[in-house]
Amino acid sequence: MKPVFALVDCNNFFVSCERLFRPDLEEKPVVVLSSNDGCAISRSAEAKSLGIPMAAPVYQYRQLFKDRQVVQFSANFELYGDISERIVRLLTEVTPRTEVYSVDESFLDLSQLDISDYQEWGRLLRERILREVGMPVSIGIAPTKTLAKLANHRAKKTPELGGVLDLVNLPDEDKDLYMLRTPIDEIWGVGWRLTPRLKAEGVFTALDLARLRPRYAQQLMGIHGRQMVAELNGLACHQLELFGRVRQTVMNGRMFGEDTGEFLVIESAIASLTARAAHSLRREGLLARGAAISLSNNRFKPGYQRQNKALTFHTPTADTGYITARLVDLAGDAFNPGEAYHRANVYLYDLVSQDALQPDLFGEVDVAGAQSTQARLAAVDAVNRRFGKRTLYFAAEDLSRRWEPKHRLRSQRYTTSWDELPAVKLS
């Protein structure tokens, strides 16, 4: 059975999430801004047409935003995450063989589905997602993941395709034409580092790369290059990483709303970031064998420094309070009161399933204690699920709120907060 992949990619995802509850913003330039409203991380097609690039610093484009009436939003990741989960649930109804590649992209394995017309299937799926979730998507269908990425990209840029491109049943000459129109830097896996090297060798398009000798591609880019050539010629080298795989690490980090030299503020940030990371572990039935923090000042100012500290646990854990206490101790060792700290990251790594917990030879793993902790935290999570987030939480999270990123322009969390549900007026 030959592999067939579909890549479903949401169009301008963050902006499209904002437009779900603001239909008045259709056909208007809209940008979503990063933490502390520093730069553009998502742009509508209308904003792109104004020449606003990705990661555009707001201070450099403030006059353009004003003159062209560009609508700005602070990032609302709680809303975006919920919309993403709704789309993933829909896609897993289509086929359980789904790989969530990112918050706005998913690969589907179609090889086991009875589909005679992939173009029509893609059109119907696109209509269903728009009808049930309200999200515009583009769909690329091909015998390899690299070609599915390419097809998706061409579907976005070619309006007459209606958002769907099937490269499986396309004649070779038409397939070559799409590859010829795809610049080398738009190929999945090339990136800005490899682009100059390939252009120096006369490789400017996807078609040029597909016609490169595999051995020479490997000399230029390693085994990754050989695989890329094979994928562009229809030979699948990258298989689907099925939905539900165990991840290896959880990271939560934030830039502070204002630089700080107060340890109280940093302690509160660590407590809040750890609470989110540990909750992610428990939700997926995982425990961490190790944890780490990093503290840094502003890398755009003189004297940039980043301090990293790590520790291991004798007994794998997802206990928010215990991990927070240990990481705060680490932060105290790294803290310098003369520094102005700009960012904190919390990492939980070396993850194992909570069902795999077992005694060790030297008796250092406290299985009974770990099981008691899991039951206690399961009760806390159950209360928060029923009565709302932060119904129960650790006091250290409330020591200070000055670390929280500024989001003056954030929209309401329409789908996850009872207090921010959209209001409807009936006359």
Model description:
- With 427 residues, the protein is an alpha+beta fold.
- 39% of the residues lie in helices and 20% in strands.
- It has 14 helices and 12 strands.
- The chain has a 5-stranded mixed sheet with strand order 5-6-1-7-8. A 4-stranded antiparallel sheet has the order 9-12-10-11, with helices on one face. The chain has a 3-stranded mixed sheet with strand order 3-2-4.
- A hairpin with a 2-residue loop joins strand 5 and strand 6.
- Helix 10 packs across helix 11 and helix 12 packs antiparallel against helix 13.
- It is globular.
- The N and C termini lie far apart (59 Å).
Order of helices and strands: EHEEHHEHEEHEHEHHHHHEHEEHEH
> β content, as a range?
15-25%
- CA radius of gyration is 24 Å
**What's the β-strand tally?**
12
Strand order of the largest sheet: 5-6-1-7-8
Look at the helices and sheets and give the structural class: alpha+beta
The gross shape turns out to be globular
Topology:
Blueprint: E1 5-10, H1 13-20, E2 30-33, E3 40-43, H2 45-49, H3 58-67, E4 71-74, H4 77-94, E5 98-102, E6 105-109, H5 118-132, E7 137-142, H6 145-157, E8 164-166, H7 172-180, H8 191-200, H9 206-210, H10 214-221, H11 223-232, E9 249-260, H12 263-283, E10 286-296, E11 306-317, H13 320-334, E12 341-353, H14 367-387
Parallel strand pairs: 2-4, 7-8
Antiparallel strand pairs: 1-6, 1-7, 2-3, 5-6, 9-12, 10-11, 10-12
Helix pairs in contact: 10-11, 12-13
What's this model, at a glance?
With 427 residues, this protein is of the alpha+beta class. The chain is built from 14 helices and twelve strands.
